[in-house]
Request: fold
Amino acid sequence: MAKVKFLVGSTYGNAQQMADEACEELNQLGHQCEVFNHPCIDDVIGEDTDVLIICSATIGEGDIPDNLLPLYSQLSDQSPLLPHVKYAVIALGDSSYDNFADGGRQMNELMHELQAVSVQEMLLIDACETPDPEEAVLEWIRLLHPKL
Ligand SMILES: Cc1cc2nc3c(=O)[nH]c(=O)nc-3n(C[C@H](O)[C@H](O)[C@H](O)COP(=O)(O)O)c2cc1C
Reply:
């Protein structure tokens, strides 16, 4: 059983919904999960953090949504090292835009720089190409579960 924190970046609610459903699934699989809609650095650097799952859409021109941006800035500025933390990323976007899914990709890069340990390949949810995003997320979560 792992303590899992979902860190959400969402403007219109899609990423929020995916995080809520993923959280419920992992809770049912026996983990202890919580969703943070306005995460800050204190939610991340505490001793009680085993696993971070970043669930972020992209807004503007490849930007991180406003509710996740403060965390990104705090982590970039303070650069706390997180080698004891496992992480994985769900990145939502739309491939008809340039900078496809860059919000999630930027978070992924930052976690890598902070030496957090990636436990599963990033899940890309493309509004143009992923017919059933919920099923894609749940499948990905079930694969992730034994690695936590
Ligand atoms: C104004 C606007 C700008 C967007 N810019 C991008 C972008 O640069 N890259 C991308 O991959 N998706 C982009 N998207 C698509 C969103 O990331 C996608 O629709 C996502 O599912 C929205 O999630 P949310 O409801 O959690 O905000 C944009 C959507 C809107 C409405």
Notes: The pocket of flavin mononucleotide is lined by residues 10-16, 57-62, 65, 92-94, 97, 99-102, 127 (CB under 6 Å). The domain at 3-147 is CATH 3.40.50.360 (Rossmann fold). Helices lie at 14-28, 41-45, 69-78, 102-113, 133-144.
